[in-house]
Amino acid sequence: MGWLGRIMARKDASGAGDVAEQMRAAFEAAQRGDYETALAIWGPLAHAGVPRAQNNVGACFSEGLGVERDEALALRWLTLAADAGDSVGQRNLAAIYFKGQGVESDPARAAALYRSAAESGDAPAQDMLSWMLLEGEIIEPDHAQALRLAEAAAAQGVASSMTRVGMIYHNALGVDRDPQQAALWWDKAAIRGDADAQAMLGAAYHLGAGVPRDPVVALSWLLRGREGGSELAVPFLDAVRASLTPVELARARELAEKPLPEPVA
Fold first, then answer.
1. What is the DSSP letter of 209?
2. pLDDT (tens digit, 9 = 90+) per residue, 88-98?
3. Are the C-beta atoms of 125 and 114 separated by less than 8 Å?
4. 3-state DSSP call for residue 224?
5. What is the pLDDT of residues 188-236, one digit of tens each?
6. DSSP string spanning 31-69?
7. In 3-state terms, the chain is what percent helix, strand and coil (to 5)?
8. For the stretch 88-108, what's the b/e string if a residue is b when 16 or more beta carbons lie within 10 angstroms of its beta carbon?
9. How many CA atoms are closer than 13 Å to the CA of 6, on its beta-carbon side?
10. Closest among 165, 213, 216, 172 to 190, alpha carbons compared
């Protein structure tokens, strides 16, 4: 029995309640890692034309969640969701075209899809489009729009966008250079675990740029950033270490190993 046959055989799992209730039950199953149950609900809904269910089925095929990975079926279902105006479907389809995953890479189409999703308020799409607008390799650069989108995504809790806002103020990209604003945004992202923000916040404390100079705090953030994989921390580490006493080095390492504080909303 193929995937569709298994789904229809288990249709009774999704037969009760309205669409919202079924989608909620499927989401809870997916949260538990039970994608077979989730797909048993999403499958009939997707065939009935529910865009978010179509996205979810497509995402499962794209990532091999509960089914064997199938790029052609992922493309089919995500296209249906995107064409129906589902912002998450547009964003996921954009990622497929951006990466060339089972389809010829088409960065321009990806950018258009990200834009549609971003205009609907999808935070990850806003984050990605803001990056594209800063890079300026795929679409024409627009620093003002990049900042607006990054701020919108940051307001929804996207740490990488918080880091990007900090970079925009640090590098004076369409705004006056403002070290204090840069450090403020890096702090927001750093406590949410963004490694590049941790590295840049460490550099700011090392240089006294936008925050008081504090080499112990600087090293603690730089160590977190490096541990998280940020190459931005590397150029500063030796200089900061050299400025500290053994006691201060131990204190910095202790701070770096503490749990991050809870983000303030």
1. S
2. 999 999 999 99
3. yes
4. helix
5. 999 999 999 999 999 999 999 999 999 999 999 999 999 999 999 999 9
6. HTT-HHHHHHHHHHHHHTT-HHHHHHHHHHHHHTSSS--
7. 70, 0, 30
8. bbbbbbbbbbbeeebbeeebe
9. 11
10. 165
Domain regions of the chain by residue span: 1-90, 199-259
Q: Are 225 and 192 in contact (CB under 8 A)?
A: no
CA-to-CA dists, residue 33 to 25, 29, 220, angstroms: 13, 6, 35
Q: What is the DSSP letter of 210?
A: S
What pTM was computed for the model? 0.89
Q: Would you tell me how many other CB atoms lie within 10 Å of the CB of residue 205?
A: 25
Structure-block tokens of residue 184: 């403020």
* CB-count exposure of residue 140 (10 Å: 0-12, 13-18, 19+): exposed
Give the integer Cα–Cα distance in Å for 32 and 20.
19
Q: Hey, what are 86's tokens?
A: 């589902």
Q: Is 120 helix (H, G, I), strand (E, B) or coil?
A: coil
Residue type, 1: M
**Phi, psi torsion values for 10, nearest 5 degrees:** -105, 20
Classify residue 244 by burial, with Cβ atoms within 10 Å: 0-12, 13-18, 19+. Answer: middle
Looking at residue 29, the DSSP 8-state letter turns out to be H
